[in-house]
Fold each of these.
Amino acid sequence: MSASIDSNGVDSLSAIRLFLDAAALGSFSAAGRKQGLSPAAASACIQRLEAGLKTRLFERTTRQLRLTEEGRHYRHYSEQALALMAEAEAGLQAQGAVRGLVKISAPSDFGRNLLLGWLEEFRLLHPDVQYALSLSDSTSDLVQDDIDLAVRYGLLPDSDMVARPLRPNRRVVCAAPALLERCGVPQHPEQLAGLPALVLVTASGPMHEWRYLEDEARRTVRVQRSHQSNDGEVIRKWALAGQGFAYKSLLDIEDDLRAGRLQTVLDGYFRESVPLNLLYRRSRLSRRASPCWWNSCWRAARGLECCVRAA
């Protein structure tokens, strides 16, 4: 992307940033103030951008400013382009000393059992990086909670987030062998409704509707809550103790499955993909630590995959 300069001294990258600010704030004046431009200069800059693209990016009325279909298309690719440039700059800067505080959010059992090892690997390489680690099974608001990076299963319903895939994953139903011997092995997901179940409770409510696939159609079964907790690690420990069936991410219980402490059931039904992703908001991308931290996570994830395949 070339950074040409127009007659008013505004380069093309600044014009794109102004366009994105105007789209987010709904006002040329507000976007101009953020970029240090007068309302007239900001409006003229957007007009020159539209003229160069030969398309209208905004619908202008006396009451509101909103993107056209072409504007939404241009915003999508502009955000990606600026994010990539930020990562490129960060990668160059990170070749030197990497330091600073990184605020991370992750699911509770994943954070305790796997993420801590990844962070330790990275700490040995970059001892000047500090972590503020928040473990919760509720979806974090990356802006409200002031989070730099979130590790989550699946994608969050937010178009302003960048997702980096770390590992494939799916959710499974599992139980301790003693429970299966006592209650029997269910042959269809609907049978789970009459069996003891361990339910994770998040900020959105109890996860007591377990999703499965049958004849390629998505279905759910509502389970009875024998025990419930807002901590995924507690759910896992209850499952190990034979207290009920649990709906868990496969990655969280792989060691338990290999050791025979837990067994999965109904694998032909519970096969929906829920990949493990590293999420960050473009505006929060750290220019020093985040890309290196992600690279460390990626190397650790690839190493973990090799261990799983070899097991």
Note: The first helix runs from residue 12 to 25.
Amino acid sequence: MMTERAGFDARKESESFGRAEPSYSQRWPDGAPWPDSSEHRQAQLPALPLPRVRTESLEHSVRGTVFALAVIPVGVGLWLILWKLGWMGSIVAFVTAAGAARLYIAGSTVGSGGTMPRRGAWVVVAVTVATVLLSFLGGIWLDLADYLGGSPLALLFEPEAWDLLGYNLANNADLVEGLKGEFLMALLFSALGCFFTLRQLFAQSRRS
């Protein structure tokens, strides 16, 4: 009987003092979290650094815009060279968008580098559109200069050249229809040329 009792007591003791399982939100008497609790594990996790968001002031935005505008004459000149050769200047839109983005970042960050903000992405879009429009108008003026046999720059100060251009745009239906088709083609190829660059800029601006 004693042997059976001793065995029973021993089993009871092992069951009573088995591995302790922490209950939900169990704490030590001093208020500290239980070592195996989720609170303790979360307290041991290192704090991850948050990404630094670059805030852009109006002054930086204006400076970046002025820098980006410098790409317009380069884009117009490249377009006119390709126009003279009879090619569509879709690459001009790509060069303009990429150049305007780099110049904007350089101007707005004073050369320290950084990401493109949303305001800067819209500036790049405006610069690209303005370059395409001015380039197309420059191509028309270049054709007019070839027709008149004069210098394009010198004809800018000739009233007769402006009168001839205005008269044809108002009364020459064949010329207007031809220019419409060329303009739509120029817009199409320009959009294809700069689409991926602009999409990347807007995606970067959402993350910044």
Note: Confidence is low (pLDDT under 50) at residues 1-10, 12-18, 39-45, 47-53.
Amino acid sequence: MSDRSKTSARRLRSRRVHAFAAAIALSGAAMSAAIPAQAAPGLQPAGAIEATYFQAGPHSVEKRAGTDCCSSTGESFDIWYPADLGANGAKASIITWGDGTLAHPREYDYLLAHLASWGFVVIAPDLTSTGTGDQMLDGVNYLIQQNADPESVFHGKLDTKSVGAMGHSQGGLGTLNAMATSNGLVKTGVTLETPSLSLCTSLPALIPGKDVCHIPLADISSGSVLVIGGTADPVTTSGPSRYDDLPAGLPKARASLINASHNDIQGQPGCTNLGCNDGVNGYLGYVTAWMMDQLRGDSQAHGAFVSGTGELMHNNHWADTASNITN
């Protein structure tokens, strides 16, 4: 082969690798064309706190799909909520969800219904490009309006000062952007398999005309963040974790689920698409515990995340753990 041919071959391989990385980074549906013959069995809890919140919560769950409208750009919302919402005068915390690129809320149904079973009202714009966080905040504001509407099923049943954000891949960028621009409305965030800054900036713009990669993290002056990755995910392992760029004084923790690839979070609960090794089970316990701790003040859940002694820090299903949470 001539030197010129070798150079052309290397360029072709480089383009193919870059295109593959882009497809993964853009998340969900981009990798769902083929379905494994058998779903993976999924991980089981390895710690007592994880086991508590891995189990479905005490509430049956209702779902409203596509009937609540609209975001500022016209998307409808899907909403998961406890069937006994408002029982005994209890008010539910809100979690706003951000999809990965090319994905839809239904692809995260198992995870989002699980959160609702623990008493949260979860709202997700049906949007495949959530990186700005704008439509995620639209979801929060929609529920605040519903809470004030006597005709709404949510009337008077929401704790509108107890708001969290969570998102997958590009939706993780949206989570951080929503926190940075919400003026303290969003109290905590969980990012799941979010692209590293180096990978994010190497790809074509995730949203044309908008830079969602360079997040004003210094503007997140209050609240807390949990950064979750996967050791088999080329998206989150391609550069330094976003954890390191968050303000030093912000309560934060990080961990990578061993053997998890980019789309395990979409498990139902086992794998139904490509980019998935074990399914969603490995995430359920600690993601739920984080929201129970940060939004509901659950002291048992809090014990998972304390620096040095927290259960997550020593769980053998997790690697690259860190926390600055001391009490």
Note: Confidence is low (pLDDT under 50) at residues 4-40.
Amino acid sequence: MKTMKKKLIASLPFLAAAATGTAFAQSSLTLFGNVDAAATVIDGQNTWSGLKSGGNKDSYFGLRGVEDLGGGLKAQFWLESGINADSGSGDSGDGLDFKRRSTIGLKGNFGEVNLGRDETAAYKAMKRYDVFNHSGIGGSQAWGVGNNDDKRKDNLISYASPSFGGVTLSANYAFGETNHSTWKTKAYYDAAVSYDQGPWSASLAMEQQNNVDFTGANIRQRAYSLGSSYDFGNFKLTGAYRQARNTPAGLSSVKSETYSLGTALPVGAAGVVKASYNHYRYQPVGVATKLKADQLSLGYEYNLSKRTALYGTYSFLKNKDYNAAIGGLSLEPAALLSDSGKQHGLQVGLRHTF
């Protein structure tokens, strides 16, 4: 009996190590990110040149972890921080933080539920229809022409369904977190439905943001988005439309719209030629004039490997009926628009994903 007890005691460290090993085997922790920097020249009324971060894809790094809880249920977290590759600073202006994403959640056969700060369901559904990834001088400004167009929200409860024959559903609710608030006060909610089957993709999204204090006006914003793409094999075609209506309290609505078309054409074994056209119609809150702008972009990306690419992008932007007193859209605010409301720019950069 004493010999047996000694054997059991001696084996405890090995049993503990085995148990720990099993726990680690059921969990994972991943460090990931993207570093992207581009030499940039923008010409308008003056010329601006410098190094810009995220010319092809946003620069960021993050940690994500998953724990298998058994029975198909998993716990997960995701912490992601934007960075300026040209300076090493955080891209939020508040130093290094996790304002790109900070969520914790559960995932299973029901789909997944996450809590925290994240991209909205509407933006997640629609961003893939811009061949320039909403980044750099070629990226669409569809989420910038409608007042208070946030791609991400704090205090978010999000749900994403599993795929039902290629159809997925997602929805968000973000608390306003104000004193004496109801569930509607300053709250944000949206829903999106997407279809992906073979070469075909399509998405529809709807959003509402309540009681936003924007330039002194109490605004309710409602937005609707529709996007689609088809991969023909030798090239891919994308299209999208977004409308945002902003209603200041006691005033009539002002509307912002973006029409987008894009294409990506593989060239050789490692190259991709990209082109896009964006037409913007928008009216800032408090401005009586409806503004228009057109943006044409052309780019080439050469993949040195699965994770590293060289790229070049040219973009031209023209504000119609430009009025300097009102302003307009720009590729780079540091380079002033020309007297006719034009800017054009060139970026040449390197991107590495890990």
Note: The CA atoms of residues 143 and 149 lie 5 Å apart.
